Each structure stands twice: as structure tokens, then as C-alpha cells.
């Protein structure tokens, strides 16, 4: 476990797509980002919290639309979610989902998240990556050994890459954080 003290400068980088799908598929829940940030900081100094999001709603079925037509297609539910993140002091990095001929869709922020973490590492003592994606292993290694930063990874125990857990100075099990998962209520059908 990494040493934590109040004067550490912390940057938090959140892979929203990874968290959204894992929390939904594993727990039928959503993440309480206020509780998450508070727990991760553990009374340390937040320099920046960044969330990497992909605008997906309003894009489905528009494979043939021009990229210009896809801009500003955020629906009310995505907009509300993005607003809630901003209210928690989380800065958003946004891009539209990429839709390829034949309907294949790609939503990827890995390179952008890695570049931001490297850029900001000059004024951070601790980098916290909230993701389970093993693609971030070289980033963790570089931040630790090339930049001398502590790197903490927070993710779901069942979906976080095992090598990513090993490489981090500390792995924080997301589902073990009190009040971080908000379970969706089951909808009861008539007659039950």
C-alpha cells in the first residue's frame, strides 16, 4: 500500500466507459462519483480530476450521417450525467463515438487519457487511474519508473487486468468502497 499524506498532489483520470459498463454488467448499478473521488483522495490535495467520456446516444442508426451532423447529439440523459460529473468538480474530455461503415462503433480514449496523465505528471505526486484496462500498463510503468510518481489504480476486482493490478503501487477495489455503487431498483411487473 502506498504512503498517503495530506500534502500529496493528486490527479485522478477516470475511464468512464470502462466504469459504466463494468458497474452496469457486474452489479446492475451506477457509480457515485462524489463518493469515489472523496475515497480516492483520502484527505490529499486534488489538483485535477478528469473524466474521459464518449457521446453515444443520438448516434445509433446514423451510420450514414456526416461527422458534422453527429456533433452536439448528446441526449438529455447523457447531458444530465455529464452535468452531474461537472458538479462534482470533474473536468470532462469528450468525443463522439466513431461509427464506421457496416455499423461498427468504436469509443476509445486510451491515448488521450495517457497523454494527459504524462503531461500533468510534472505537477503531481500521485496519479490515480480509474480503469480496469490493461492497455494502461505501459503508462503505469512509465509514470512510476520514468517520472517517479506513485500510481494507484482503482477498478472492479473481477474486470481489472491482473498485470495492471500488479504494476500499480496500490490497487483499490472499487466495489469495496462504501456507498460508491448505487444499485438500480428492479422494476416489478404487474401481478408480482
UniProtKB/TrEMBL annotation:
Any single GO molecular-function term of the entry would be:
RNA nuclease activity
InterPro entries with a match to the protein in the record: LabA, NYN
Q: What PANTHER family does the record point to?
A: SLR0650 PROTEIN, SLR0755 PROTEIN
Residue ranges of every copy of the NYN domain listed in the record = 9-175
What's this protein's name? NYN domain-containing protein
Amino acid at each position: 500500500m502506498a504512503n498517503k499524506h495530506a500534502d500529496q498532489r493528486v490527479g485522478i483520470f477516470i475511464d468512464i466507459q470502462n466504469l459504466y459498463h463494468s458497474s452496469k454488467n457486474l452489479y446492475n448499478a451506477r457509480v457515485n462519483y462524489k463518493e469515489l473521488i472523496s475515497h480516492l483522495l483520502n484527505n490529499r490535495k486534488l489538483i485535477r480530476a478528469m473524466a474521459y467520456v464518449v457521446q453515444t446516444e443520438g448516434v445509433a442508426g446514423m451510420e450514414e450521417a456526416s461527422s458534422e451532423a453527429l456533433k452536439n447529439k448528446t441526449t438529455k440523459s447523457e447531458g444530465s450525467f455529464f452535468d452531474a460529473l461537472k458538479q462534482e468538480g470533474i473536468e470532462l474530455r469528450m468525443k463522439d463515438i466513431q461509427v464506421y461503415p457496416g455499423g461498427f462503433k468504436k469509443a476509445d480514449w486510451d491515448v488521450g487519457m495517457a497523454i494527459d496523465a504524462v503531461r500533468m505528471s510534472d505537477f503531481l505526486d500521485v496519479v490515480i487511474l480509474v480503469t480496469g484496462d490493461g492497455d494502461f500498463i505501459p503508462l503505469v510503468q512509465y509514470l512510476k519508473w520514468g517520472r517517479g510518481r506513485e500510481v494507484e489504480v482503482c477498478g472492479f476486482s473481477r474486470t481489472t487486468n491482473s498485470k495492471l493490478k500488479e504494476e500499480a503501487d496500490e490497487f483499490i477495489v472499487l466495489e469495496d468502497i462504501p456507498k460508491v455503487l448505487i444499485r438500480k431498483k428492479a422494476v416489478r411487473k404487474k401481478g408480482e
